[in-house]
Amino acid sequence: MRRYISFIFSIAFLIFLSFGKPFAGKPVCLSCQEDTNLSKIDKNGKKIFLYIDRGVVNASIHNRLACLDCHHEVKDEVHMVKPGPVDCGSCHQQILKLYQESIHRQKYLEGAKDARWCQDCHGSHDSKSINDPQSITYRLNLPKMCAVCHQDPQIVKRYRIPVNEPYKIHHQSIHGHGMLTGKITLKELKEKHFKEYERLKAKGLIRDTEEKKE
Question: Whole-prediction pTM value?
């Protein structure tokens, strides 16, 4: 009797999946992509693994989104359509605008192979909040993240980046050393600079740029 009930439940579940867009949910998508052996061969004959770790997705800041919220091209549960680049700007409009005005976007449009797109710096299925110390975009992790490209001598030379070894320079500076060791917080840096600014302003040594010239 139990087997019969289980069989009926399974059939009912499959019928449910055949209507609407229930495959937009992660459980159905991950039923395939959790397979550690799931892979494909690209046009160059290289084996590409398509495995996605459920734990990584659930720990992401996007864990409440359905797969199709980002992968709009996919229309069927079993699909041959390759998901294209995710349009992060559909949600992050203001951030996209800043990116479009950046040198990274300029180089991306020029077809530079090293040009960075959103996922290159923020991650994809593993994206975390900028307030999460485990995030690659957490403020104390930013220098190391930027150094992936800016510390590469070939990239520095190829794009004529004016500052050599910026990560090393930042790390050795009083600001970088203080923040990385936890001896100086970002809040303390702001407060120290503000106090010095007010002191110099009181002596008439500096003035606000907004003040009108006499």
Answer: 0.64
